[in-house]
Design brief:
Oligomer: single chain
Largest sheet: 5 strands, parallel
Number of strands: 5
CATH superfamily: Rhodanese-like domain
Strand order of the largest sheet: 1-5-4-2-3
Number of domains: 1
Distance between the termini: 42 Å
Low-confidence stretches: none
CATH class: Alpha Beta
Mean pLDDT: 89
Number of helices: 6
CATH topology: Oxidized Rhodanese, domain 1
Length: 122
């Protein structure tokens, strides 16, 4: 039986951890990755976020210039806390499961994504 995209996301959300927006602490300077496409991120991002699109995340997580320097040296191993977000939480859920399968133990998806964060700023 084929799954619709949102059915797949619903199943995946049972296998990952979602971070409530109220628990997002930007003052702690987390590794915050925006997995939206560059044109979406270009319209606005959560402060401190790095844009690595969902389609290349697995290939760039260890090599992206913004994550491999002194600011976040521990991203080379899977113990670093990583917060992923997209527009509403679907793509970041898919990305969280993928990174978990790659050995990242402390990866979460931001509930409601950028839409929820933007709404909280008004």
């Amino acid at each position: 039986m084929a799954l619709l995209p949102m059915d797949l996301v619903s199943r995946i959300k049972l296998q990952i951890t979602e971070l409530a927006l109220s628990d997002l602490d930007l003052d702690a300077k987390p590794i915050l990755i925006d997995v939206r496409e560059p044109q979406e991120a270009g319209a606005g991002m959560i402060p401190g976020a790095v844009n690595i699109p969902r389609g290349v995340l697995e290939f760039q997580i260890h090599t992206h210039e913004a994550l491999s320097g002194e600011q976040h040296p521990a991203v080379a191993h899977g113990q670093t806390p990583i917060i992923l977000y997209c527009q509403s939480g679907g793509r970041s859920a898919l990305a969280a499961l993928s990174l978990q399968q790659m050995g990242f133990d402390r990866v979460v998806s931001l509930q409601g994504g950028y839409q929820a964060w933007l709404a909280s700023q008004q």
